[in-house]
Amino acid sequence: MTDDLRTIERKFGNLSEYSIQVNQWILKPIGAWPITNSTTTVEKITSRILTVVCWCFSLFTIIPGVLNIMLEKEDIYLKLKTLGPLSHWCVGGFNYAVLLLRKNDIHYCIEHIRTDWKMITKSEDQQVMLKNAKLGRYVAGFCAAFMQGGVFCTCLVLGAFKRTIEIGNETMAVYTLPCPAYKFPVQTNPTHDIILGTQFLSAFIASSSAAGAFSLATVFASHALGQLNIMMTWVDEFVNRQSRDENNNACVNKIGIIVEHHLRVLR
What we know:
This protein has eight helices and two strands; from the N terminus they run ααααααββαα. The protein is mostly helical. A two-stranded antiparallel ribbon has the order 1-2.
């Protein structure tokens, strides 16, 4: 085992955790990380509580926003202007629901990655897996940082500062919200600050859902790519050895290993 592999194994406990750590960071705060046999009772309860809290915050933003479009906005331009931010929360809620419904499939894929790290023991093959794991981590981390940063800045600009409007001959400074809410007195404090805080949190949940789905796809795809590269290396080694080795039993066993691994990667 190379020094790079030893360092990562000492730091993370095992190499498979290095591959999925960023996914855990994104999904655990919103209760979307799969529950496994090793999950403690406290972690299971915490995950369920986080799920309920996340749905409450999300619906607290989505429902008043929908009512605002349906019952308050009469100008089509204002409706479309409100629909833009609201669509982020709606799509985020859909992503969140899909992540929760597909927890078992996500758990299966994560266990698949952990098993692959246990099965592959050759140092050269582990280096290939590590290279693809690093790629998956970097892309997932960049996606999460970009989405969270962009949404946070947008909410900050749209909700934390007053806007100047003209009503007749008067000029007034008023508060606004990232997603307009129906019948809430947003011009008074602490009402505005409370609603703005809930919209910040719900925006974080929506962005984490999208970033979590993308990061899972990235990590799983990069891991599968690494497994295919390893399988190609095995095929090349088999062809080169076949010209020198006359042991038919050894050849049959090697072919069986390659075929089984190919089927495993395809699953």
